[in-house]
Amino acid sequence: MQKIPMTRGGLARLEDELRQLKSVDRPAVIRAIAEAREHGDLSENAEYHAARDRQSFIEGRIMELEELVSTADVIDPSTLSGDQVKFGAHIELVDEETDKESAYQIVGVHEADIKQGLLSVSSPLAKSLIGKSVGDSVAVPAPGGDRTYEILKVTYK
Questions:
Q1: Distance of CA 65 to CAs 51, 59, 88, Å?
Q2: Does the keyword Transcription apply (predicted)?
């Protein structure tokens, strides 16, 4: 079984979601199914079918999360150092065309959220950055043509 790199925070979020699904959502959907069954004919009971669909989704997500949690390879970025970009690094970049600065942390695929600055290790930007150091320029393939960024700062927290 292949290990999936993940930060401690990413693993904690997955475990929280798993707990929520098992302790709150699963019992709620079981009650909804039981309630819908009491309304009679199941073949024309929209509430019953909606609850069963929801149950199917919840059970599938529980299985997926259990697999992710069991294969997580937790990497603690605070134990790393240097100015070279690795998994877990907090990076500050500047777009060399627009001078717009941005900041990201490189995280596992299942914990990425670009709105929160969590960049997937498998994204084109992260792939271009890994192994580079402060001061390096990196070209990143983009739909409108390559974008060039300069690495301003690399930290590990």
A1: 21, 10, 21
A2: yes
